[in-house]
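Exercise: predict the fold of this chain.
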Amino acid sequence: MTRTSATPVTPATTTPATTTPATTTPATTTPAGRLTAAQGAAMYVGAVLGTGVIALPALAAQAAGPASLLAWLGLVVLSAPLAAAFAALGARHPDSGGVSTYARLAFGDRAAVVVGWCFYFAIPPSAAAAALFGGEYVAAAVGGGTGTATLTAAGLMAVVTVSNASGLRVTGRVQLGLAGLLVALLVVAVALSLPHADMANLRPFAPHGWTAVAPAAALLVWSFAGWEAITHLAADFRRPSRDLPRAAAAAVVVVGVLYLSVAFATVAVLGPAAGAARAPLGDLLALGLGGNARLLAAVAALLLTLGAMNAYWAGAAKLGAALGRDGALPGWLSRGSVAGEVPRRSLAVVAVLSFLALAVVYAAGTGIRPLVLMTNGSFVVVYAIGVAAAIRLLPRGRARAAALLALVAVALLVAASGVYLVWPLLVGGAALAYARFTRGEAAVPAGH
């Protein structure tokens, strides 16, 4: 990426993360990336599959009954063009700024700042919610209620912080192992529970009416989280133009098959009880294995949560460093924006804010739902700007056509977000205010 003169960049002498001139693309003058296509696919699977497959099958079944399967199918179909658009952008413009970079190239600095802030400040509440999903599985298996769930969530966040602080090479290897294990566990859960399926559980197919599919689909917005996350790591791939699209394609297939399999098993096996299941994966394993299989489900939930949080924290930390590099956040965050470096300062900010969100939820007793819906609102805004940028930046062809399809789908999600768009609007307003303030400071002569 070539920085334009309009970009709010700090002077080169004050940016410790890079010594390249302001007009040079960092990715072309920094050490080669180390992520492979297999590691990238694992990070995609972990980011997208994780918390969605833990909690959403039951929530969607509660909203629409067996007709929730249509919402899942629609989600999988729409994931393909969304993933293709972001992968094409990442391959064509590899930079740790991810969607923020694409927004700048397509629409200018203000759009980039808004995207960056929306994504960066959506990670702490989403991390707290995801960690609590895993924590609730542990609490369901061993008891202890909210206290056990919160303590487990704090432990998950600590592990992810240490994993990412140790460097991207470790992060990629850990993610690859976690993704393989979680896929195996899900396959076992579905295979063992399907013999207990009863097709009568699919009738009536739409007990709450066909219009209930829309609320079910709105709940599944959380499952979109992940297709844009890995674009922040595009510069860390060995060969972004080849490896990133391959990683995205492999992830869409794996995630689609697993989503639909788990959703079908939840409805066909658990029947009317599916909507009330707090730990649907545990219920499936218990039917297949008997005994105390919920302990195995708790292990699976922990692995899934670690996978999602690992990828998201890596991407968010890189994004924060890139925003600091470009002046959209304080410059001291910029260390680690170069490919191959670890953005420990930005990672520390993400970790502190995530622990704060967890503490607020525990103290207020509000539950997870508001955090999930606030996060969804932020991600929908990021997706909308991201795919719009793809339409402007990508040449005519399959990738641009995919972006057009994705834009239509995301526009529907924006309309469905309703009141929860207030959070990203507040964050976007704060981003623009910060950009204006720092620009005004830069215009004041020294000594005044």
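Check your answer against the key: The mean pLDDT is 79.
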